[in-house]
Amino acid sequence: MEELELIKNADTRASNYLSKIEERRVFPSTSDINALDGFIEPLSEKGRPASETLGLMDKLGSPATVASNGPNYFGFVIGATLPVSAASERLALAWDQCASSFDGGPSAAVLEQQAAKWVLDILDLPRQSAVGFGTSATACGLACLSAARSSLLASLGWDFENDGLIGAPEIKVVVPDTAHITVKKALRILGFGLNRIIYAPTDGYGRVDPAQLPVMDKHTILCLQAGEVNTGEFDQFDKIIPIAKNAGAWVHVDGAFGLWARASKNSEHLTLDIDGADSWTTDGHKWLNTPYDGAIAICRDKDALARAMNSDAAYSTASADAQKNLSLEFSRRARGIPIWAALRTLGKDGVADMVDQHIRQAQYVASELQNTGYTVLNRVVLNQVLVRANTDEATQNIIEAAQNSGRVWFGETVWQNHPAFRISVSSWRTKDTHIEQLVKVLEELYHQEN
Ligand SMILES: Cc1ncc(COP(=O)(O)O)c(C=O)c1O
């Protein structure tokens, strides 16, 4: 049957790709990128054979990928994909369930319910919370922040869902001055306006300074961070959340990658009392190493999220915990399935081991680079190492040379007005030998510049 042949063909190509993932250039060569011009063709009138379409995708597309699913990619904290999560996704694609609710796919709904319970268990967050599986931390953050606003307005006697914003009491938002751009994006989309955001000053580590917290009240949403994008630092939840809660504020935590630190006993100190917040977002597709797009919105008041995200219609009603009523999407893939597969296969210990390993590896990279002569700009509490060479020019040359080498890849950033680079250790495939290779590449480049 042509369909099955085609799926087998895709699986063979995927297996070939993965079997060479370690040897691939981490960023593709210029000639492989130039060959992408082969995709530029007129839309055919009569279509073409499916196998030829797949063949073209593989022939031109596979060589021009970034090997972020490999062990030598250290950019953006994006992790690789665990085999079981990738495999479960493949099976779920064959099911092609419209996982809006139980009616669209009973098995998908039950698997996502189970994944939701495990997420609350492993992250040790309030067990009654609603858990929505969405496309990204951006989208899940937006869902949580809209629940936050609606809930604060309800407590001020305003029915946001029906009466909207015109004439509503003003809600103010406080975010760390190091807040991730996507938190600001979500706030902008929700209509808060970037000029109206109140920035909480941060200390030298990039954490909100509890002594300089802006005044908060029952009109306030406070956003905190578990894992600052450059340094991996955590806000001091045990000091800040009680102040915010006493003032009547809603506390939301962006933990796109850092929330997974909570899975390891060794990192417990980073997230002390984080469970006192009202909502949290995290990604599966970053540190848990599940495929895109798999993210999680968690809201202590399950009715608040279900009210904000409700999409029931006469032809499509469902329970309050149906995923279409907890996330932005209506028609949707069951994004919780690869997360379920990862958690079931790794177990609590497996996730903790992965977290511990990456933190240990990041700390090793930091100390080796420091010995070489680099300046490490953060104190490496997590899987992020923020680095600078002796001059801005040398830093930039090293980033460029490393990226062009094809042996490793990490990204650039700006820290305190100077260029720096970020090394993120987040792939389950990264063994100590890959870390040694990264250090070696950086040592060579340092000596070329000095
Ligand atoms: C701290 C932080 N928050 C939010 C995001 C946004 O996550 P996503 O790409 O899943 O929308 C990211 C990274 O992308 C991040 O590092």
* Total count of domains: 2
Shape: globular
N to C succession of SSEs: HHHHHEHHEHEEHEEEHHEEHEEH
CATH superfamily of the largest domain: Type I PLP-dependent aspartate aminotransferase-like (Major domain)
Please describe the biggest sheet, giving its number of strands, its sense, and whether it closes into a barrel.
Answer: 7 strands, mixed
Nearest-integer average pLDDT: 97
> Strand content of the residues, in percent?
5-15%
Decide which structural class fits the backbone.
alpha/beta
- Distinct helical segment count: 13
CATH topology of the largest domain: Aspartate Aminotransferase, domain 2
DSSP helix fraction: 40-55%
Strand order across the largest sheet: 1-7-6-5-4-2-3
Low-confidence runs (pLDDT<50, min 5 residues)? none
